[in-house]
Amino acid sequence: MSRTDAILKRLSGLHPKLIDLSLDRMLPLLQKLGNPQDRLPPTIHVAGTNAKGSTIAYLRAFLEAAGKTVHVYNSPHLVRFNERIRLASKLVDTRTLNRALEEVEKINAGEGITFFEVTTVTAFKLFAETPADFLLLETGMGGTYDTTNVVKHPLGTIITPVDYDHQGFLGRTIAEIAANKAGILKRGAKSVMGIQRDEGRKVLERSAHRLGIAPLWQGEDFHGVSEDGRLVYTDEEGMLDLPPPALLGPHQFDNAALAIAAARHFGLPVGEKDFAEGLRRVTWPARMQPIRSGTLRDLLPAGHELWLDGGHNTHGAAALARTIAAFDQARPRPLVLIMGMMNTRDPGGFLTAFSPFTPEVLALTIPGEANAHPAAHIFARARDIGFAARPMRSIVSALKAAAEIPDARVLICGSLYLAGDVLAKNGTPPD
After folding, report:
1. Any idea where the Mur ligase central domain is (predicted)?
2. Which of 180, 283, 337, 379 could staple 142 via S-S, CB 3.0–4.6 A?
3. How much is the average pLDDT of 97-125?
4. What pTM, to 2 d.p., does this model score?
5. CA distance 294 to 424
6. Which fold has domain 289-426?
7. 341-397 pLDDT, tens per residue?
8. HSE-CB of 118 using CA atoms within 13 angstroms
């Protein structure tokens, strides 16, 4: 076990629950550290159900193309915890991370606090200590009581599309979930909203109005569409004719447009040239990522495609299905889904989005995850929908089975935890 893993294991044992939404444990610890959350660079706070990470990836690419340094906070990580914290545009190095974790652990002195809370406090400490031009801050879950929601005066807030997710913690209806996400809105901070369901938009509108905020709304105040393979963006300032996003899928045009709107609305120091360069350079692992080499890729014949995506809810499945449909327009192939999923998700709802493609489903139990659906459960749900399906013992056996299907398009999906396991075993972890 590495030193980092040993520290993280100790921190994970400080509270009996993995998730316990509250700010009551964090705020005293932050105060002991001198309130680093009040000493951050200009901060853009991002909440929503899907597209948070992609939106932040675009903003980082735009700012870095303009020569700015950027802190980033994302979760979860795929392979190494270091992926969660980017300091001045570089992933935190292990020595710096370990030092900060141990300092926070010492000051916390064994008090009860969840893993995400204590590691978020550590991130704030590092962000306050390290100079940078901007901080891009992603919520972990929800908004109101999310551990990141201690920044009093963000430069701006973004709420990406709100859909069903984490209903056991955030609410059973879209309106309840939207009300929770709206907790990141702050009086005096501008806001940009992604495309929303009607019931979610009504809640977000009321929340913004109470705070005196007039948000920009995607699909109304700004638009981004694909025209002849390019991204055409329009808002009240005019039109931008830009290259397509390097991230694949029709939904990435929406995500890129949301980030462009935020950059312009918040007054970030980026111009059209920076937008174009950022769109070409943007990366975001395990989001419709092509796997072209590596230990696992070598198990498939040269003519097969292999894709990896961490999408894990019905909204994400719908975006993936649109991407597969676009691929099929260019070159139809039989679709094979290698799928693992945590037991807080509905495999049937996820798989239904792929009904037009009649895929074969190779079901996995995510290795090392006690709360993963057994492969047999995912297999049964796939069979209920009418898909050909098989439970598999491992990612290796699943890929060997996929290799037997001629000219297949293989998509590994259903969980970021599965995606991380695949990248590690393939020998291609994120930089």
Report:
1. 46-263
2. 180
3. 96
4. 0.94
5. 10
6. Protein-Tyrosine Phosphatase; Chain A (3.90.190)
7. 999 889 999 999 999 999 999 999 999 998 999 999 999 999 999 999 999 999 999
8. 27
